[in-house]
Every structure is written in structure tokens, then in C-alpha cells.
Amino acid sequence: MPAAKVSAPAEKSLAQSPVDSLDAARAHLIVALDAPNLSDALHLVDRLEETCMWFKVGLELFTAAGPTVVDALTSRGFHVFLDLKFHDIPNTVAGAVRSAARLGARLLTLHGAGGPAMLAAAREAALSQPNPPQLLAVTVLTSMDAAQLAAIGVEGTPAQQVERLARMGMQAGLRGFVCSPEEVSTLRGLTGPEGILVIPGIRPAGAAQGDQKRIATPADALIRGASYLVVGRPITQAPNPAEAAQQVLREMATALAE
């Protein structure tokens, strides 16, 4: 999957001023719009407009608002990460990928557990579009630990399953993945610098863990090799979301500057 539209953060060896580092951080922070309706989502966007460039639209918001929310964001110049985690037979997923591409999503998820035929069909469908989104294979959800994997019949640790699915995804032609902060270093080693690694489970220093099992701070995730960080509740549920976003950006900028 070509990665012309999105790229990993600048190499840490490049000297960056504080302003440059903050701009770089802003380009690689994705705020999760986990709102129950379009009105609430756009109200939050208004509060963050001067701070953020990327927004994630997930199942809750897309089910409530449909494609309208993607158009509302892209028409204002924002980049959309459409996190719908497609997982179905290859033909159905291929059709869904084509539809998502026409909406203007720049990042799009599908479950790696769908298998190589589904991933390959998704890749071919994306490449058939004029402006293909970067496909991201979801490996193991950050809410899952070894006990959760065992409950669904998956033996081994989350790290082992993440690597297994990533290797399969790469064989199917994908170079974009979603994993927890704990597996970033391993996947960066597999994909090389051209890989796009999108990392949820980000919690700023002092933030509540919530229902996430495998987490890291923004700085730690970037140092390990993350391309994009997804942050939801620590920003969206803060009394002042813009101030909370700025704190995350400062943590990211410090890591990039160092």
C-alpha cells in the first residue's frame, strides 16, 4: 500500500526547534471523536480547531451520523482516520474500502484477523481508487491481554499475536498497522521506516488508564517508533480539551526534539 499521503515522524537525529517540534507533533496527533452524535462531535472540533489536524471517526459516531461526519471534517480541511475495523468476507470488505475511499478518509482500518485473502482484496480495492486511503491492519486491540486472547482460542502473548498478524499483513501487501505501544518497536523493525504505525492506548502522564490494558505515554510511544498517536478521553473528556491537547503535543514535541 503506498504511503504517499502520510508519513512517519521526522528522524530523531534531525535538529528541530521547539516550534518545529510542536508543528511536527500536531501533524501526528489524532484525536478520537468518540461522540454520540454529529452535533457533539462538531462542538468538540470547534474547541480543538486551532490545535488539531487529525480526527478519528469510529463506530459510535459513524453509526450515529454516517458519511456526513466525514464530509463535515474534510470540508473544513481536517484529515480523517476512519476507524471502522472492517472484518468480513473479501468481496464485502473490498466494496467497503472503495466506499470509504470515495468519502475522503486518509487512514482506514480493517481487522488483520480477517485473513490474507481479505487483506489482499482490501488492498486491491484501495489501489483501484484515485485517492486511496492508507490501509491499517488492526492487530490486537489494546483492551485485550493474554487472558482475553485465551478466551477466544488464541494461544501465546499479545506480542506474539501482533507479530503474527503483522507478518501476514505484510505478505498481503500492507505496510500500515495498528498496535499497542508495547509492540511498536517490534513492528517498526518489521516494516522499516516506510511503515505506518498508528498507536492507540496513549495516556499522558497522570491520566487514568480506563479500559486500556497496554498503554504508554506520548513520548514513550514516539521514541519506540510510532507514526501517529491516537488520544481520546484524556483530551475529549477534559474540562478544557484544547489545553489537554496542548499538553499531549508538548509531550510529543519534547520527544521529537530530543
Short account of what is shown:
With 258 residues, the chain is an alpha/beta fold. It has helices spanning 18-26, 38-48, 59-65, 67-74, 90-103, 116-127, 146-151, 158-171, 184-191, 218-224, 233-236, 241-257; strands at 29-32, 54-57, 79-86, 107-111, 134-138, 176-178, 196-199, 228-231.
Mean pLDDT: 89
Q: What is the CATH C level class, in words?
A: Alpha Beta
Structural class: alpha/beta
Give the helix level as a range of percent. Answer: 40-55%
Largest sheet, in brief, is: 8 strands, parallel, barrel
For CATH, the homologous superfamily is named as Aldolase class I
CATH topology value? TIM Barrel
CATH architecture: Alpha-Beta Barrel
Q: What distance lies between the first and last C-alpha atoms, to the nearest angstrom?
A: 31 Å
Strand content: 5-15%
Order of strands in the sheet with most strands: 1-2-3-4-5-6-7-8
How many beta-strand runs?
8
Which spans of ≥5 residues are poorly predicted at pLDDT below 50? 1-15
Task: Report on the architecture of this protein.
Strands 1-2-3-4-5-6-7-8 form an 8-stranded parallel β-barrel, surrounded by 8 helices. The chain is globular and about 45 Å long. The relative contact order is 0.17. Helix 1 packs across helix 12 (241-257) and helix 8 runs parallel beside helix 9 (184-191). Residues 1-15 have low confidence and may be disordered. The protein has one domain (19-257): Aldolase class I (TIM Barrel, Alpha-Beta Barrel), CATH 3.20.20. Strand 4, helix 6 and strand 5 form a beta-alpha-beta unit. With 258 residues, the protein is an alpha/beta fold. It has helices at residues 18-26, 38-48, 59-65, 67-74, 90-103, 116-127, 146-151, 158-171, 184-191, 218-224, 233-236, 241-257, and strands spanning 29-32, 54-57, 79-86, 107-111, 134-138, 176-178, 196-199, 228-231. It contains 12 helices and 8 strands. It starts with 17 loop residues before the first helix and ends with a helix.
